Amino acid sequence: MTCRLVRRIGGAALLAALLAACADTLRGLLTGAPNPPPDVEQACALASTKCARCHPIDRVVVSRGIGAGRWQMYIEQMRLKPSSGISVRDADVIFRCLRFIEDACTDCKQGHI
After folding, report:
1. Domain ranges within the chain, ordered by starting residue
2. Helices 38-51 & 88-104, crossing angle to 10 degrees?
């Protein structure tokens, strides 16, 4: 964004827009998963941040329904990529998010929301 645009939008409006964009990303991961507990919301916030470093978060959303075992495999593959920035601890937290989604969204099939 240019400085002129930021001034035109205003600081408060810009902050609100950025927060809304982050909420939409988090909601994308949790779409169809009713009432996630706070620790899962935090786990999904981390997953959104880490996963979106390398690919659109929609790639994760449309993959729901693949099963916990495959998620563990994919998370480990991503963790091993030097540019991912995913630590062993991060991988456990990301898995908590994706496991919750797999368990909570019983009508999710691979490729469908």
Report:
1. 3-104
2. 120
**Letter string b/e over residues 33-70, b meaning 16 or more CB atoms within 10 A of that residue's CB:** beebeeebeebbbbbbbbbeeeeebeebbebbbbeeee
Task: Report pTM.
Answer: 0.69
Structure tokens at 98: 């994706």
pLDDT in tens, 46-69: 998 998 888 888 888 777 778 889
